[in-house]
Amino acid sequence: MTIEYVSRKESPVERTYGFFEFMAVSAIIPGAARDWGTDMNIAQKTIFTLLGLAAIAVIGSCAQPEPLEFAGAPCKAPPVLHCPDKNCAVDTVVNGGPVLEPETGRNYFLDYPCDLKKGEKVTLVLSLHGAGSYGNWQRHYFPILDYVDKYRLVVATPSSPTRFWTPKDDKYLQNIVTSIIDQVGKKNIKAFWLAGHSQGGMTSNRLVCTDFFKSKVDGWLSLSGGRIGPVALSPEFGLPEAGPDGGLLPALAEASKLAGSARPGAASTPNCDINFVFETGEKEIAALPDTSPWAEKYHCSKRVRKADIVDTKPGYVYDSSRQDPANPAWGRNPRPGTADVWEYPNCDGSKVIADIMRLDKGHTEGLEPKVTEALVKAIVSAPGGKIKNGS
C-alpha cells in the first residue's frame, strides 16, 4: 500500500507560531487556514497574526503552575500565632509551632508565601532561638516571617524542649530541612541560610560545617551569636539578677561547652565555604572590630560604611522577665532605633560579608522592621546554590 502525502502551503501564522497555534486561529476565523494568496493585503495578515498571538496567550493561560502547600503546614494570612505590634501574650511567644516533625514527635513553625507555586525558586532559612527562649519568641525577635511574600522565603523556626540546643537536637533539625527540600525540590532552592540568636547562633556555628549541613548551607547569619573575628563583650553583659529563671546561667555555660571554642561574642572559624553576616546590639559589646578574618579569607576590600538604617517602629519582643532593674547590655523594652552597617565589598565569589550594629540596643531587644529587611536583603543577594548544585 502506498500512502500519498498531499503537500499544502503553510500560512505565515503556522510558519511563525506552529501548527497548533495555527489551528487555533483557524478555529476562531473561518478561512484563515486557506491559501494566503497574493490578493490578501498586509492589514488582513496583521490581524490574523495578532489573533494568533491572542490564541497562544489563551492556550498558555490554561497551564498555570500548581500551588505548593507543605504537608501538615497549611499557609495562613496573617501567619498563625503572629504577635501584635506590642504586648505579645506569654502563651503566644512560648508556643513551639503547629507543624509536626513525625520522627521525633516535635513541632516547629513553617512560614512561606501563601501563593507559592510548585517549581518556584525560594530561599530557605532555618532560624534558631537562643538559650532560655522559644520558637515563637525567635520568630518575632527576628521577624523574617513578615517578609516571606516579598522575598519568596521559606522559614523554619524550631524549638528545643530544654530551651537550649545540644547535639541531641541535630536529627530533629536535619529532618525539618530534609522535609522542606523534598517538598520544594532541590533545583528550586536558590540558597539556604542558618540564622540563630545567641546560643542559637553558637549552635549554627557548630552545625554549619558538619557533614549534613556543609553541603547545603550557603550562609550563616549570627544574631548576637558569635562573630568570626571575635568581639569583646561589654563588662555589663550577662543575665541580670532579677527574674525567676535562675537555671539559665548554668544552661548557658553548658551551651558554650557544647559549642567548642565558640562563645558569646566569638565564633569558631568554619572550615567550609559560606557567606557571613553578623548583627549585634551596641550595648552588649565593647566595640565592633574594623577588620574581619573571614573577609580576608575571601580577599575582600576594606570595609565600607553604608547608609544607616533608621527604624521608626520598635521590634515585637524583649525579655520582659528582666526589666526590674533593666540591664542595657542584656536588653530593655522594644524601641525605634538606628543601626550602623558595614560591608566588605569585592569578595571572591561575590561572597556577602557584613556587620550590622544596632545603636543603644542590648542582647534581647527584638529586631526592628527595617533592620530585619536589611538582613533579608543581604541573604537573598548572596551567592547560593549548594543544594541545587549538589555540592
Proportion in helices: 25-40%
Q: Would you identify the CATH architecture of the largest domain?
A: 3-Layer(aba) Sandwich
Reported for the largest beta sheet, the result is: 10 strands, mixed
Q: End-to-end span in angstroms? A: 58 Å
Chain oligomer state: single chain
Helices and strands, in order, run as HHHHEEEHHEHEHHEHEHEEEHH
Mean pLDDT: 86
Number of strands: 10
What's the number of structural domains? Answer: 2
Radius of gyration: 27 Å
Low-confidence stretches: 1-39, 242-248
- The global form is globular
DSSP summary: helix tally: 13
**How is the largest sheet built, in terms of strand order?**
1-2-4-3-5-6-7-10-9-8
Could you characterize the architecture of this molecule?
The protein has 391 residues and is an alpha/beta fold. It folds into two domains: 12-34 and 41-59, no CATH class; 90-236 and 248-389, Rossmann fold. The chain has helices spanning 12-17, 19-28, 42-61, 90-93, 135-141, 148-151, 170-184, 199-207, 211-214, 248-258, 293-297, 369-381, 386-389, and strands at residues 99-101, 106-111, 122-128, 153-158, 189-197, 219-223, 275-281, 304-311, 337-343, 353-358. The protein has a ten-stranded mixed beta sheet, sandwiched between helices. The longest helix has 20 residues, at 42-61. The radius of gyration is 27 Å and the shape is globular.
